[in-house]
Amino acid sequence: MDFLTTLQVLDSAIRLATPLLLACLAGLFSERAGILDIGLEGKMLAAAFFSAATASITGDVWLGLGAGIVASMALSLVHGLASITFRGNQLISGVAINFLAAGLTVLIAQAWFSQGGRTPSLIGTGRFEPLTLPGAEMLAGIPLVGPIYSELISGHSILVYVAFLMVPLTWWLLFRTRFGLRLRAVGEAPEAVDTAGVSVVGVRYVAVCICGILCGLAGAYLATALQAGFVKDMTAGRGFIALAALIFAKWRPWHALYACLLFGLLQAVALRYQNIDLGAFVVPVQFMDALPYILTVVILAGFVGKAIPPRAGGQPYVKES
């Protein structure tokens, strides 16, 4: 693999890792507060549809982004209502959200656009365009450093940079602020937080709202930046890969970045190399498509070690009288 091909694969890996990273950080906030969220996939899908639909109708990608975040937050609040207020089973609530989003997005898309459950293609101001960072064109001719800066670091949409900036911001919020201390404590010992006079319910609702915002960004990125419109089930299991990356990262922000980049790289390689001819036989394209998911299972089974989730994860909190 030559240098240019390597850059192209790494560039694709960054683009493919972005929705995984946003969804992984979303799950990190939720699960650190003790709320398991299997519904990342459904929230991303709803955000992808409503962002693409709004951008298509209005021609404004920022309105589309806002619509995607609102849709994702609405499902987050439904999950919060079911699992926090009514103390329901968090796994069942998340699965229900996934099914609801999968069916509802196609139904509404067909009713609004009559294009077989998809939205019209986004053009112009209806989608996020790549940004050229300062000095990228000037440095492009410099060997090694120039192509890395101009082609690998520069040239992404604004949501890519937002996703990567969210990693240090998440670390700072969780480990350097009073809010982060309370959020982590709610996921480990909610009874101690309650005794200290902090609302466990309030902190958990804030966590699921942050989760909704980040899933909204992830879904909007899929439909308005990575692709140019919504198609049925376009998340393609990314929400579940994000959950796997979260376990692989052991619920830590920087490790989540490395895990998502790894899974993004696996997807980029699978997309780049199709129908590989090994002489005796040709590797089928279906195997390459499944490779990232296969390797995800292998990595989780063999290389993660013991991943200990927050102690109060998945347990509804009942205030002692």
Describe this entry's structure for a reader.
By secondary structure, the protein is mainly alpha-helical. The protein contains 13 helices and no strands. The chain has helices spanning 3-32, 40-58, 61-85, 90-113, 136-139, 145-153, 158-176, 178-188, 190-195, 200-226, 238-248, 253-272, 285-302. α1 (3-32) packs across α6, α1 packs across α7 and α3 (61-85) runs antiparallel to α4 (90-113). The radius of gyration is 20 Å and the shape is globular. The mean pLDDT is 89.
Short description:
69% of the residues lie in helices and 0% in strands.
Mean pLDDT: 89
What proportion of the residues is helical, as a percent range? 55-70%
As a percent range, the share of strand residues is under 5%
Given helix and strand content, the structural type is: mainly alpha
- Biggest beta sheet attributes: none
**Radius of gyration over all CA atoms, rounded:** 20 Å
Question: How many strand elements?
Answer: 0
Shape: globular
**Quick one: CATH class?**
Mainly Alpha
Helical run tally? 13
In CATH, the topology is named ABC transporter involved in vitamin B12 uptake, BtuC
Distance between the termini: 66 Å
How many domains?
1
Low-confidence stretches: none
The CATH architecture is Orthogonal Bundle
Order of helical and strand elements: HHHHHHHHHHHHH
